[in-house]
Specification:
Blueprint lengths: L1 H37 L1 H8 L3 H23 L2 H14 L3 H28 L11 H27 L4 H28 L4 H29 L1 H9 L9 H19 L1 H20 L4 H43 L2 H28 L1 H9 L4 H30 L3 H26 L3 H25 L3 H29 L7 H25 L2 H6 L3 H7 L4
Helix pairs in contact: 1-7, 1-12, 2-7, 3-5, 3-6, 3-8, 3-11, 3-12, 4-5, 4-6, 4-10, 4-12, 5-6, 5-10, 6-8, 7-8, 10-15, 10-16, 11-12, 11-16, 12-13, 12-15, 13-15, 13-18, 14-15, 14-19, 15-17, 16-17, 18-19
């Protein structure tokens, strides 16, 4: 009986730990993504007629950069978080410290090599657009810094310390956005300069932000150095792990993280290099028009839906170390419970966020991007909002597989999904234009997600009966939220205003009313308690919901 009680306590602690970690990572990701989206409005205004072309160039450069960055980081931060959690669970903190130092060596070496490849090999990756060369040159500098920063975040996460990662992420984004806006204003408005130069400086902001984020982590590490040293002194110190084995563990764990972590980016690169050739087969379009279309579905909509997808990403990062600990203990019941909790927490935040964004797609698009291709842009954003649920599910599901050391299997499933994407890409783009890449992405990730979830169920058992009842509650409440937000958007359309201020007010009112409705219902029905734990009771008291 005592054992049972102790086991229940451990499960409760694990859930509390997951919720606390998710709160920090979610807050960091959300604020970072919001900052990363808000800059669009002044950036758009200052670029004027060159905005869509500039945004397309920015997006193409960032897609290539994202792939190189993931290769430079090589999955080491997530692998470090997973392995540090593994050794910490065994009370071998000294090995965790050595693991971090060895990982740092790998990160610095790969960062230098990949940055050099991207800088000097830039002409090879442009796809015929020479304007990309200075953009890739400026982005290469960030790759020198970010691997060290990301690795240190992974080290903190392995200790279940999510605050340093979240705060450094926010500071990184804040510095990046400030540099972007300042450089864009000076070049485009003060100096009346070239828009390509302005885009190049906007991408150089990634390096400036990385310096800020790394500085924050350094301060945190310095303040907590005594705590880390005391953990090492009180370790079991019974295991002897040679340096060669530490390197091998990092690399074996890291390589699958490269493929899976780059999943969404790989799909975006497929779109980047195939969209224009396929569209040129379908009709006679100018390069400028195809760039505009690419900006609409591949950059503009993507920036906004990544705000909601970041919720799933934050959850994924939190789950991996916790699952790794349960897997190390061989606790199959705990793994099953955490898998169910992870999916429910994902649904709890992702579904209402995605439906809510789709409901306000038109005014939201007008706020951020103005009236260029207005109707098409709003339709693409609405469709992308639904698609974001699938992208978020992939992010969480692949992280869960990594947490239980099913890396190779997860990579195989992703490869299957990528093959599906390639097969359907040509006909869908040919017949559906700008919606084609989004449909093809949905098909590919749907297959991958199905294979991953089915595999997890076969191995550990997912309590679908328990999940289904709560999912129904989330779905019904989310649909109610969507209906309210859509109704307010409909009423707002009678204002006849196409200006940013009026449409911002429409979005704000719809978000507040729809958001409050969702929060009220999940708290009133106790659905939030069942998913997030007893902590939400305090929120219910503060909102006077009984």
């Amino acid at each position: 009986m005592a054992a049972k009680s102790d086991n229940s306590g451990n499960q409760a602690d694990a859930q509390e730990q997951m919720v606390a970690g998710s709160a920090w990572m979610t807050a960091g990701s959300i604020f970072s993504r919001i900052l990363g989206a808000v800059y669009i409005i002044p950036w758009n205004i200052w670029f004027g007629a060159f905005y869509l072309q500039g945004n397309a160039l920015y997006g193409k450069g960032y897609n290539i950069y994202s792939f190189f960055l993931i290769a430079a980081i090589a999955g080491v931060p997530s692998a470090i978080a997973k392995q540090v959690a593994h050794y910490n669970a065994l009370n071998e903190y000294g090995i965790s410290v050595r693991l971090y130092k060895r990982g740092l060596e790998i990160a610095i070496m790969t960062g230098v090599a990949i940055a050099a490849l991207m800088y000097f090999g830039a002409p090879l990756f442009t796809g015929g657009d020479d304007n990309l060369i200075p953009v890739l040159h400026s982005l290469a500098w960030a790759i020198l810094i970010i691997p060290t920063m990301s690795l240190t975040r992974g080290y903190f996460q392995g200790f279940q310390q999510m605050a340093p990662s979240a705060i450094s992420q926010f500071v990184e984004q804040l510095v990046r956005v400030l540099y972007m806006l300042l450089s864009a204003y000076v070049i485009m408005r003060v100096l009346k300069g070239n828009w390509i130069t302005a885009v190049s400086q906007s991408t150089l902001a990634a390096a400036m932000g990385a310096l800020g984020g790394l500085l924050v982590l350094g301060v945190y590490y310095w303040r907590r150095r005594r705590h880390f040293r005391s953990l090492v002194r009180n370790s079991n110190n019974q295991m002897v792990v040679p340096a060669s084995q530490l390197y091998r563990e990092i690399i074996v764990q890291a390589v699958p993280f490269v493929v899976l972590g780059a999943g969404i980016t790989i799909f975006q690169l497929i779109d980047q290099y195939t969209f224009a050739p396929i569209m040129n087969m379908a009709g006679n379009y100018s390069a400028a028009y195809l760039n505009d279309l690419f900006a609409l579905f591949g950059v503009n909509a993507n920036k906004l839906i990544m705000i909601t997808i970041s919720l799933a990403s934050a959850l994924a990062v939190t789950v991996v170390p916790l699952l790794s600990e349960a897997y190390t203990r061989g606790d199959k019941k705990s793994i099953s419970d955490q898998l169910s909790n992870a999916f429910l927490m994902f649904e709890f935040v992702m579904i209402p966020s995605a439906l809510g964004m789709s409901a306000v797609a038109r005014p939201l698009n007008l706020v951020f991007y103005g009236r260029s291709h207005e109707a098409l842009a709003a339709s693409i954003l609405a469709f992308s909002s639904y698609l974001s649920i699938l992208l978020g599910l992939y992010t969480v599901a692949s992280a869960l597989m990594q947490g239980i050391s099913q890396n190779k299997r997860a990579v195989r499933y992703f490869i299957v999904g990528t093959i599906v994407k390639f097969i359907v890409q040509w006909p869908l783009v040919y017949f559906f234009g700008a919606f084609g890449p989004l449909l093809a992405t949905g098909c590919g990730f749907l297959v991958t997600c199905y294979l991953i979830v089915h595999s997890l169920d076969v191995q550990f058992g997912i309590n679908y009966a328990q999940i289904a009842k709560k999912t129904n509650g989330i779905l019904l409440t989310s649909i109610g939220t969507y209906a309210l937000a859509k109704f307010i958007t409909f009423l707002g359309s009678f204002s006849g205003s196409e200006g940013r201020v009026m449409n911002f007010l429409i979005v704000a009112v719809a978000a507040l009313v729809g958001g409050y409705f969702y929060v009220y219902v999940v708290l009133k029905s106790r659905l939030a308690d069942a998913i997030m734990g007893p902590r939400v009771a305090g929120l219910r008291r503060r909102l006077h919901i009984h």
